[in-house]
Amino acid sequence: MTNLEKLTKVFVESFGIDAEKTKGLQYQGIDQWDSVGHMSLVAAIEDEFDIQLDTDDIIDMSSFEKAQEILSKYDVKF
Amino acid sequence: MDLFSFKIQDKDVLVYRSKFAPVNTNMYVLITGKEAVVFDPNENNKLLQLLHEKCIEKVHILLTHEHYDHTNGVNWLVNHTGADLYCQKNCAEVIQTKKGNNPALIALVWANMDKQDGGHRYKDFKERFVPYTIIVDKTFDKEDRLKIGELEFQVTSTPGHCPGASCYKLFDKMVFTGDTLLQHNPVILSFRESVKDDYEKKALPYLRALPKDTIIMPGHGDPFVLKDTKNI
After folding, report:
1. What range does the domain containing B43 cover?
2. What is the DSSP letter of A77?
3. Mutation choice for A interface testing from B161, B190, B191, B196 by most A CBs within 10 A
4. Same-domain status, B182 and B74
C-alpha cells in the first residue's frame, strides 16, 4: 500500500467517508472533522505512520493535501 | 467563582464553581470543616483565596476523567496545597504519562479562536507549556466509597467517553458526572479512546437508574436536575 493509500484509509476510517471525498477535504468541511474529530485523525495518522506530530503541525493540518505536505516533513513520501 | 447552594438530607451543601476558559470546563469545590474537595482543578488564584479564607488544612482532588481540560490544574494545586489525588485506575494510567497529558485539543481550540479575533492565546500557551506527568495517590476500579469530612461519595466507573470516566454520587442526591452526562449536548463518543459499547452497557444504565430528581453537576455547563435533560 502506498503512503497516499494509507493516508486515504486513515481519513476514510476516521470520518466514515468514501475515499473519493478525501480529495480537497478541509478541516470543518464535514461534521465529523471538528476539533474532536481532528484529534482522532491525528492519533490515527500517528499510529499509521509511526510518528509523533508536533503541536504546530497538528494545528496546521487543515486539509487532506496539507496533511500530505506536513507528513513529508516526517520523511513520509508521497 | 460561582456559588451554588443545595439542601441535601438536612445538610447545607455549598458548591463553588469556576470554569477553564477555552471550553468552559467546570472545577467544583466543596468545603467540609477544615477539608476541601476539588473536582477537576484548573489554575485559579481565587481557589487559593477561598481555601485560605475557609482556613482549609487538607485538600482532596477528585477527577472525573483523564482529559487535559479536566486535569490541567492538578499539579498546580498539589504544589500550592499538598493535596492528594484520587481517580479511576484507567484515568491514572493515562495521566501518569506525558503523552496522556497532551493539550493538543485545547491548543487547537486556542488557535481557532486566534484565527477569528487575531489573538495570541496559542502562542502564549505554547511558550509556557511544559510536558508533565501527574502522580496519583489512590485509585479505584469499578466502584468505591469515599468519606471526606461530612461528605460521603459513592464512586462508580462509567467508561464510554473515555476509559477512566467516573461519576461521584454525593448523599444519594447529587452526582458529579464529568463529561459522561451534560445537559444540552450529547456525550462525545468520537474520541479515539471513546468506546460506545462501554457507554451503552456501563455508563448509560448507571445514569438511567438514578432518581429523576438527582442534581447533576456536569463537566461543562450549569448544574441541572436529571429530569431536565434528554441525553439519557
Report:
1. 2-96+134-226
2. -
3. B190
4. yes
ipTM of the complex: 0.85
What single letter denotes the amino acid at residue B223? P
* Chain A partners within 8 Å of B109 (Cβ): 35
DSSP state of B4: E
Residues 77-106 of B with CB under 8 A from A: 103-105
CATH class, A3-72 region:
mainly alpha
B64 and B149 within one domain: yes
Provide the shortest C-alpha distance from residue B191 to chain A (in Å).
6
pTM exceeds 0.90 = yes
* Alpha carbons A14 and A38: distance in angstroms, whole number: 9
Per-residue pLDDT tens listing for chain B (232 residues)? 999 998 888 888 899 999 998 999 999 999 999 999 999 999 999 999 999 999 999 999 999 999 999 999 999 999 999 999 999 999 999 999 999 999 999 999 999 999 999 999 999 999 999 999 999 999 999 999 999 999 999 999 999 999 999 999 999 899 999 999 999 999 999 998 999 999 999 999 999 999 999 999 999 999 999 999 999 9
B108 touches chain A (CB under 8 A): yes
Same domain, B173 and B107: no
Give whole-number Cα distances, B82 to A45, B72, B87, B160, in Å: 39, 16, 17, 31
